[in-house]
Amino acid sequence: MVNGARPRHDLNSSMQRYLPGGSAPRLVASSRARATTGNAVDAALVARIAAGDRLAMRVLYVRHHARIRRFILRFAGDEALADDLMHEAFLRVWRNAGRFAGGGPVSTWLLCVARQMTIHAAQAPPPTCGPAIGGADNA
Question: Do the beta carbons of residue 73 and residue 29 sit within 8 Å?
Answer without folding.
Answer: no
